[in-house]
Amino acid sequence: xxxxxxxxxxxxxxxxxxxxxxxxxxxxxxxxxxxxxxxxxxxxxxxxxxxxxxxxxxxxxxxxxxxxxxxxxxxxxxxxxxxxxxxxxxxxxxxxxxxxxxxxxxxxxxxxxxxxxxxxxxxxxxxxxxxxxxxxxxxxxxxxxxxxxxxxxxxxxxxxxxxxxxxxxxxxxxxxxxxxxxxxxxxxxxxxxxxxxxxxxxxxxxxxxxxxxxxxxxxxxxxxxxxxxxxxxxxxxxxxxxxxxxxxxxxxxxxxxxxxxxxxxxxxxxxxxxx
Length: 275
Prior knowledge:
Elements: H1 5-13, H2 16-38, H3 42-63, H4 68-89, H5 100-114, H6 122-142, H7 147-172, E1 176-178, E2 182-186, H8 187-203, H9 212-240, H10 255-259, H11 265-274
Antiparallel strand pairs: 1-2
Helix pairs in contact: 3-4, 3-6, 4-5, 4-6, 5-6, 6-7, 6-11, 7-8, 7-9, 8-9
């Protein structure tokens, strides 16, 4: 097996999809770094735009078409996210005795319930609520003191989990972890991704002032939740009969394909950091 490793590495780098993934990752990292330097409100506003693209992809893979009421629904959620961002930047109280986060999130989830018939099944409705919750959590994190570093830390860990689970699976993978949901995910790749994510968490803990124990636990949980979020999206796509959520990012698929690892991590990460 060890003798075959150089051959496997060579074959991997000859795969067109892998080359596209590397190129797209480099471009995304450059874009992310540029926005990180600009800081808020540009950084947060960028992700409100991303929300529209992601939710649009989500609606499209469910129905293979987009109706006016679905666009209207997405725009309402986007407007509420923008109101939340504005209220946090200018320290405005939307509703007395309630945090802006809880108030506007509750309104968004209630409106989503009113649009229940626009979802194809309960799984689709559940994931839609997760998407809304994750983006409100993201804006809440970004508007906190040191919020950009908190999110940078999260991006580093989820990216590490994604990259090394992929590489580990391609090179060492044998045992499928969930073949009925995703044929590409392996036990070996997932374990390699988790181990490297924990190590990366410890190496970058200075960004969030964690001690080694915190970094170990947070690294493990983020890696695990990122994997579960990816698996959840794969389950939805398999149920809808599609491979990727879109074609926006060459080698990766759509925006939703790149953000699925955040659906479960962001809400819990927000609770851990902010509350």
